[in-house]
Amino acid sequence: MTNSQLTPGIVPGRLPAESYVRNFSDHAPPLDRHEAQVAADRCYFCHDAPCITACPTSIDIPLFIRQIATGTPDAAARTIWDQNILGGMCARVCPTETLCEQACVRETAEGKPVEIGRLQRFATDHAMAGPHPYSRASLTGKRVAVVGAGPAGLACAHRLAMRGHDVVVLERREKPGGLNEYGIASYKAVGDFAQAEVDWLLAIGGIEIRSGVELGRDVTLEALRADYDAVFLGLGLAGVNALNAAGEDLPGVQDAVDFIAGLRQQPDRAAIPVGRDVVVIGGGMTAVDAAVQARLLGAENVSIVYRRGQDRMSASDYEQEHAQNAGVRIICNAAPVAIHGNGALREVEFAYTVEGAGGLSQTGETFRLKADQLFKAIGQKLGALPDGLSRDGSKIAAETGLAGVWAGGDCTGGGEDLTVTAVAQGRDAAEAIHASLMG
Amino acid sequence: MANLTTDFIGIKSPNPFWLASAPPTDKEYNVRRAFEAGWGGVVWKTLGSEGPPVVNVNGPRYGAVWGADRRLLGLNNIELITDRPLEVNLREIKQVKRDWPDRALVISLMVPCDEESWKDILARIEDTGADGVELNFGCPHGMSERGMGAAVGQVPEYIEMVTRWVKQYSRMPCIVKLTPNIADIRKPAEAAKSGGADAVSLINTINSITAVNLDTFSPEPMIDGKGAHGGYCGPAVKPIALNMVAEIARSAETRGLPISGIGGVTTWRDAAEFMALGAGNVQVCTAAMTYGFKVVQEMISGLSQYMDEKGMTSTADLVGRAVPNVTDWQFLNLNYVAKAKIDQDACIKCGRCYAACEDTSHQAIWMHPGRVFEVNDAECVACNLCVNVCPVENCITMEPMAKGATDPRTGQVVSDYANWTTHPNNPMAKAAE
């Protein structure tokens, strides 16, 4: 018996085969040459451009767009990569609507920014078809351990290799890429782009990736500090915040990040089970990515429930619209109080909330949503940490407090948890390590 | 990365991109910023004789012509030579050159057309450390009314005379900057060469009025209700400049005379085109005035990439490469037959090609039901107008017919090279050899 959108429970194969292909195709298809030319011609080449300031990696956006406009996309890609070696992925996943494109003066003038993200993809896609453009400085004989092969670790490793150091990257998962591989909605990076980009990045040489090695389990920080000239921690956020609502351990309740990761690793979308009535709790991009993909897998009803007002959601307006266009309902000012079910999840109970001077409080009125699957997307947190690291709130301080140990990416504070921010921090840490090693 | 280092009449610079003598090079502050941004050299804005400096108008100096999206295509100006004291300019030039020894620094000069004036100014600049001089025989407004600038440049005998004085009283390399406001650009170039010039630079600006205010009936730029012609520059003048550069590069009398190409250079591609037509380097003004000094970064990266792709290791590999292919109309191959071809996948069905061809050309494009546009080879003369008006690059292309094929328009077989000089319709035709 085949399943449909109306089949109760968490089941695979709700849609006809062709629907999966369509639903998980490129979310924002690449610009062709003509489109890129027209888009590039709109850039004003602003002085001290606001888009550069808005970019966490400070890519010289007007320059790379001018290089596209003058028919040299490879030079454009070089301008991008000089600042952001993962510019290809960032072109796909950056929330440009809250970064460079929001700052674009043509957003101010006409409400239509220059399509910076898509132009960046045009340039990087073009140049990635060619050879890796960077080479290593003369070898220094120094060895650096990078913990975590996510965006921060990879950006750090590449810059270190470029400066002539040898790098060993320790990654607890099977594949490198971090959230680029495991945490991005599938339709944003089709064609196994994350792995292709890692392969391209490693072509510089001097970087060894050791998979399945976890800090604290397989190797200690003390040992790394003893064996290497420097250590960079790009650990990411291994833990997930709990709802602290009754019934959280019922089957059908799952972390959104696990759902997203599982989806990325299963090329046969029809084999991925999904509920008929799906509830996602949270207000960020992870919530949107989980909710939208649940719909694309054939869930009949998908709701994002966020405890504060819609204007407080960390998912951008663009992301929220994207979710709503996919048929996701967004419910705000509602906090989960109980998860009901007898053996399996059946309903989620929420209390309405108001935000006042004293913070968020519940009004006392509650409602229930039918649910056979619940995704928790209320934020991630650090996993277990080695001793001795300084903290910055709930994160590792950028100045780790340990000699010869640097940190960057989502595991540190100071910046939004974005791929592009992690790249900037990894890159800058590499330069700091280089300066320190070369004294 | 290709090596962009350029040696132009013995003046070395890290790249062939110089800023032209103009407002961007009027003082130390600007020139330092230019060098920091990566410009290979500058021609310092024109110095005049010692004495009270010239004065400028106190209203608009510039007028403009825009394309779609307010892209600046042409700029006109009525600014005169430097209005700062000579000794200030000399002091600053010396200082900048001392701090930036690897960049080219050439001084533009314009003094009255007498031997003493030139002898005097050359002595004054002697110890600045500058790499050369450029004689401003081109400025078309203001100074020309006083017998300088274009007033000299329009009289080849004056050019030769002044150039000779300069070579007599100075050891510096001498570039003569030419005005395009003349019937035959080869004549002043020949005069410069006869006078001993090491190079010519061109073009200076073109006499122009950019617009007329239809409320006040005054030309733009307007000063208190009146306007005077200014000098036109920017992307709009590039084709005129390219032709004049090519004319000098291929003329028997001036062949081999080094040329500094000026006129609308905005991107690496513009620069490469000037160089292919014989310019040893280029000078830029309007692009910098429109986009700031940083614009040179695209020129550097673009030219490097192009040269790498072409396997050129030095700018000398590029200079003059197109000159042998510039010829006279009478030598063009009349047996070269092409036909327009419309890529139906790229076509967005705007119909501009059809309107152009049907209304103003040869009725060689069919408009089929469903707005499908197709070329009728039996009528197409390959005029290229459809290509030029099409908004989609490479949607319409000109496809040459193979030798031996029959042109459906003329019924004639495409055959070997033959030009007008031997064509039967030419009363002056000579028998083919």
From TrEMBL, chain B:
Keyword terms of this UniProt record: Iron, Iron-sulfur, Metal-binding, Oxidoreductase
InterPro entries (alphabetical): 4Fe4S_Fe-S-bd, 4Fe4S_Fe_S_CS, Aldolase_TIM, Dihydroorotate_DH_cat
The enzyme's E.C. designation: 1.3.1.1
GO molecular function: dihydropyrimidine dehydrogenase (NAD+) activity; iron-sulfur cluster binding; metal ion binding
GO CC list: cytoplasm
Claim: Zinc is one of the keywords in the record: no
Keyword Iron annotated: yes
Domain 4Fe-4S ferredoxin-type: 338-370, 371-401
CDD domains: DHPD_FMN
PROSITE patterns recorded: 4FE4S_FER_1 (PS00198), 4FE4S_FER_2 (PS51379)
Enzyme class, UniProt record, top EC level: oxidoreductase
Transmembrane segments: none
Catalytic activity: 5,6-dihydrothymine + NAD(+) = thymine + NADH + H(+); 5,6-dihydrouracil + NAD(+) = uracil + NADH + H(+)
Family per similarity comment: Belongs to the dihydropyrimidine dehydrogenase family.
Function noted in UniProt: Involved in pyrimidine base degradation. Catalyzes physiologically the reduction of uracil to 5,6-dihydrouracil (DHU) by using NADH as a specific cosubstrate. It also catalyzes the reverse reaction and the reduction of thymine to 5,6-dihydrothymine (DHT).
Subunit structure: Heterotetramer of 2 PreA and 2 PreT subunits.
Protein's name according to its UniProt entry: dihydrouracil dehydrogenase (NAD(+))
Lineage of producing organism: Bacteria, Pseudomonadati, Pseudomonadota, Alphaproteobacteria, Rhodobacterales
